[in-house]
Amino acid sequence: MTALQPAATTSIERALGADRVGRDVRLAPYTTFKIGGPADLFYEARSADELADAVSLARELGVPYFLLGLGANILVGDRGFRGLVIRNVAGARRFSPDGQLWTESGAIIKDLIMEAVRLGWSGLEHYVGIPSTVGGAIWQNLHFLSPAPERERTMFIAEVFDSCEVPSAAGNRQTVGADYVQFGYDDSVFHHRPDVILSAIFRLQRGDAGAMHRILQENLSWRGGKHPWLDWHPSAGSIFKKIEGVGAGRLVDQVGLKGRRVGDAQISHIHANIMVNLGNATARDVRSLIEIAQKAVMERFSVQLQPEIGFIGEF
Fold first, then answer.
1. pTM of the full predicted structure?
2. Helix count (H) and strand count (E) of the chain?
């Protein structure tokens, strides 16, 4: 990508507000990996309306844009992003007496879980501890091995999803259901078309407070024993896609790469499908470590590990 033309920068600042649009903003602090260079332009959308307007403007001007939530499951290049990064912090929500939850797509799942449990609504508590916004949860079909303590099946956010609002091709808004979203494992229609989720509706059920708090505590404990804590060792979550019946992390472990390090990027001692930032890791460090793991697994097992994370910007 090439740098933005001055005319495009001026148009964006005029439309979105010069005081709201940052230039050359470093993206590392806005990702769970704490890695990434600067965005040419950076804008925080505080409502679904602002999000829709910013995306529409970028499309009209032909400016490359990237929609950023909590910054999980991505690796931003050391050279940053040439274009407009729109950080979605639109978090308005309301609970209805019948268990319907309407929420803007920038709302953080953790906040919704805590409010839902406090109000006695069940359905979201299974996903505690997973860093995600509503938009990211729908995009990835957020999932977790639950309910505790049996952990007999994987539960998906699709199970409580009702509908979401997206801009139509004509620029209008339309409400679409699960048939449109086409939920899969780590997948949805939003992986395959440039739709933007503006808001969503979830259907929750009345639940027992004690049971919900038990699930919260057991899921957090179980997850904490298997995943490095983000506050101490930033990561992007699972690096490689799921391999049925084998497990990508298990293969990386079996070739002896737990603890392997390139610069400040390291394959976690806790989970071999997670790479952590020990302090000053670069995107180049992570890419090198990914290649090392892929080569070792291919040589030993003839299996090609496919990255699950998104690679954003210039490397």
1. 0.94
2. 8, 19
